Amino acid sequence: xxxKDIYQSKKIKILLIEDSTEDIxxxxxxxxxxxxLDAEVKTVDSIKKANTVxxxxxxxxxxxxxxxxxxxxxxxxxxxxxxxxxIPYIVITDERDEDLxxxxxxxxxxxxxxxxxxxxxxxxxAVIYSLERHEILxxxxxxxxxxxxxxxYNRRGLLTLGNQQxxxxxxxNDDIFIFFLDLDGMKIINDTLGHEFGDKxxxxxxxxxxxxxxxxxxxxxxxxxxxxxxxxxxxYEFIPIIIDRVKDFVKEVNEENNKFELSMSIGVSKVNLEAxxxxxxxxxxxxxxxxxxxxxxxxxxx
Length: 302
What we know:
This protein is an alpha/beta fold.
């Protein structure tokens, strides 16, 4: 059975994109009167307003009427898919537009509902099915883009999410910086203490990154002892502050650890949004700058 108790104990936040007063009342009444679905509904009448709500609030699922005035079907699907990849959505159609509902599902919608067939039971089950199906798919997807040891994104995750941020930055004229971090002395740790301590050094590094960067930044381990961060909506003047923060947290780790000393070399590059391959070019540039920093660190230690 799909109607589980969890949806009675957990408040679900639903965003309804609808401009018909009659339909808003009918849908919100179905949801409010359901004794098997505890949900809060926010209503807007355009994608632009929906994006504003989703920027400030956590939304669990979207219900969107594809016949909202002034909204084109392709623009609607494109906007939801590009800006809100982690939020499942259900489209509402008229009988004459049922083909659009099917097309929406092919393009990423979890389900489509025909307006004339709506009821509390149909709406409730569609919401619950969609949330559960999305959770399963998201879990499977994460196994392909997340590094198992550190929990950071892997190279595939970095490029997938990073390129999405590049496209958003182009539209919003934001700056993006790439931080390339390399763990110094990893081979020595593995050779002298064993791979168990090598793994610990990698996990410690990921913890330092979580503490040093913002939750909106994309943190990744792209292989071996190399880590890349996509700092979105970043400002140049804050780069030295971030690097100092990394160094401070590395120092904290070393004060608590007497087996090995954690050390990192860091290179930073600004993404050129006009380049043919903005993200890849910036990563290569940050890699070169990281290597220069590594050579400088070796000279300072010798």
